[in-house]
Design brief:
Layout: H1 10-37, H2 49-57, H3 64-70, H4 79-90, H5 98-110, H6 126-133, H7 141-167, H8 173-199, H9 204-230, H10 233-241
Helix pairs in contact: 1-9, 2-8, 2-9, 3-4, 7-8, 7-9, 8-9
The structure holds heme C (HEC).
Heme C binds near residues 69, 76, 109 and 132.
Length: about 240
């Protein structure tokens, strides 16, 4: 039987406390970073389901080119020219159609205002029009793979030590094991849900749930461990083990 946190020699209490407090700050910073990077994805502050959808799935209602041709640029060209441009955008702006079909339309209807010297984007250049024709598909597979493996490896270490320390706490039994398992389960759920959300925006809530789940479980483990190391035993024993001191 291992030592309980309460009985640990001072040097280990200091070591574990330093670790847990650092991790606690890390979790807060991670929360702040999520608010800043994902929280503004829908243009409004605060993390919402839309932010998660925009971050992973993207805003696929169409491209800027299409939106402008249906909106402010509608009077600039006759319908058949506009439809041709929209169709080209929807087909993924194939380069082979640029010279024969698209460039002539641009020269004729758009270049007066969208040229190299105008304040507007220069659509006489293929790359610029292609950019305006792109649909926002959210996170790339590349960036998802990168953040997935960093997350899984990095955070697993954090939960490993956090769980190890918490395993020495006095805690009602089935619950202690369950709490130790919880962050790992939610971490995997969270990462899987990014991939699901990239393809199906309906899974955005699962990403939210995963993040909330492992934050809550870590908070309980962290505070319990700190309390049992530093507070007098009679303060926490009845609370956590339902035994009288
Ligand atoms: C009479 C001038 C004029 C013509 C002709 C014109 N545009 Fe524009 N365009 C503008 C102005 C001004 C803006 C910026 C104002 C705005 O965003 O509403 C703009 C903005 C745009 C944007 C958004 C650019 C961005 O990144 O913000 C797109 C896309 C666009 N135009 C496409 C076209 C296309 C395609 C044509 C040809 C069918 C065209 N425009 C013809 C004046 C013009």
């Amino acid at each position: 039987m291992m030592n309980t946190l309460f009985q640990l020699p001072m040097k280990y209490k200091v070591l574990f406390t330093g670790y847990l407090i650092t991790i606690g700050f890390g979790l807060l910073m991670a929360g702040a970073q999520i608010m800043l990077t994902h929280g503004m994805a829908d243009g409004k502050p605060g993390l919402s389901i839309e932010d998660i959808v925009y971050s992973y799935y993207g805003n696929r209602s169409g491209s800027k080119l299409e939106a402008m041709l249906e909106g402010a640029m509608k009077p600039m060209a006759p319908d058949d020219a506009r439809f041709e441009l929209i169709q080209w955008a929807r087909d993924g702006s194939p380069a082979e159609l640029w010279k024969p079909k698209i460039e002539p339309l641009i020269q004729r209807y758009c270049a007066a205002c969208h040229n190299a010297t105008s304040a507007q984007p220069d659509f006489t250049r293929f790359e610029n029009l292609k950019k305006a024709a792109e649909v926002d598909r959210g996170a790339s597979y590349n960036s998802l793979t990168r953040s997935s493996h960093i997350h899984l490896f990095g955070i697993a270490f954090i939960f490993m030590f956090m769980g190890w320390i918490f395993a020495m706490a006095e805690f009602p039994h089935p619950w202690q094991s369950l709490l130790i398992a919880t962050p790992f389960v939610f971490l995997v759920v969270d990462v899987i849900s990014w991939w699901l959300t990239k393809s199906f925006y309906q899974f955005a809530w699962l990403t939210m749930l995963g993040g909330i789940g492992y934050s809550l479980a870590s908070t309980v483990m962290l505070l319990t461990s700190l309390a049992q190391m530093w507070l007098p035993k009679e303060r926490w024993l009845a609370f956590w083990t339902r035994e009288s001191p």
